[in-house]
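ugh ok so i messed up the first submission bc i forgot one of the chains. this is the corrected input, ALL of the components this time, i swear. 191 residues overall. if the numbers dont match what u have on ur side tell me asap before i send this to the collaborators (the ones from the other lab, u know who)
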Amino acid sequence: MDGAEEGMSSTGAGGSMSHKECVDGITKSLQHPTVRFLREKMEQAGCPVWGRLLMAITCKGQTSAGGYSSGRGITICCNHMSFQNEIDQVIIHELIHAYDDCRAKNLDWTNCAHHACSEIRANHLSGDCHYKRELLRGFLKIRGHEQECVRRRSLKSVQSNPHCSDITAKDAIEAIWGICYNDTTPFDRAP
Ligand SMILES: [Zn+2]
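and heres the new structure output, hopefully the right one now
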């Protein structure tokens, strides 16, 4: 399935970077240690698609930060980027989807459980839910916070999959939560 919407991630902010600053930022991201690590792991897993994997685009949706699809690779919504670390974050999140796609071979983005599992991993392992990042979004609760954040963000993404209803998305996340949250491959533990 090459649907462009699969694996979308979102940001609250409208971007203030120019397209050129964003493209330069993407190049800079390639030196980020986590990005380098994931790139190495993808190559080891037999997915040498690097040269055309990342694409800077202008997105129509209000909140999308980027996306991944098997056919198109990773897209970064440059019109919504304001900071280098947002670009790093989007690339790391989408690279985890790309890694999952690569290692599973038969990953089916129209299958809500498959999509849910990859979202849980991407939101957990990318640090999308680190405490400071959540503070900036205005979510202040501390206890159990990281998992709640991963759940919330994953649910939102799976619900935006045209193949998954709100209920199906919720059920899929609950059903595979333990397995996918604890699957930190290719990291030894959540970075
Ligand atoms: Zn995602």
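quick check: The chain has a mean pLDDT of 86. that seems consistent at least. The chain has one domain: 9-181.
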